[in-house]
TrEMBL record:
One BP term from GO: regulation of cell shape
Gene3D superfamilies, A to Z: L,D-transpeptidase catalytic domain-like (2.40.440.10)
Species: Corynebacterium nuruki
Biased composition (Low complexity): 24-43
Single GO cellular component term: extracellular region
Region described as Disordered: spans on this chain: 13-61
Name of the molecule in the record: L,D-TPase catalytic domain-containing protein
Keyword Oxidoreductase: no
Signal sequence interval, chain numbering: none
Domain L,D-TPase catalytic: 77-185
Record's keyword terms, sorted: Cell shape, Cell wall biogenesis/degradation, Peptidoglycan synthesis, Transferase
Pathway(s): Cell wall biogenesis; peptidoglycan biosynthesis
Domain of life: Bacteria
Stored CDD domains: YkuD_like
Amino acid sequence: MALGAALFTVACGGSGEQTESGDPTGAPRTATGTPGPVGAVVAEGTHGTDGADDTHVPAPPEPPVFDPATTPCPAEAAVCVDIDGRRSWLQQDGAVTLGPVPISSGRPGEDTPRGTFHTVRKVKDEVSYVFDGDAMPNSVYFTGNGHALHGGDVNEESHGCVHLPEDVAAHYFDTLGIGETVVVY
């Protein structure tokens, strides 16, 4: 039987029974057992129409394992920033130590620079003096022109910095030293 033909809306009865509507004959049907949520979709099986046991549902496929070797970020980089992929990660000798994590970067006209840089300065509780005193927690600067990795809203474009989730920015700040290689691509 096609799955579409076996779909019914389940409503929970007060007695611990489930009544199903949508029977092709229009007759109400009753199934005993543990009540399911209102609006649940019933597939074929003991709670469906063919009597087979539906207790085993295959797990969804595993997402592909992230392999930094498939990216342009070299193994000697401590920080990798993939602007187009909106992600960043920390690594040591090419092995990922944190991430990838979501990021946002500079808006059009205030693009985050791409290339190989080195961390030049760290400021725990930074405030932007250029952009209305915006908070820039756990700033790790990678250019001499004010570009930093720091905590910020990853759903909002920046003025050229790389926004990281707040907890991740704290980890980057605590982990990275001055002179570490940052690759932005």
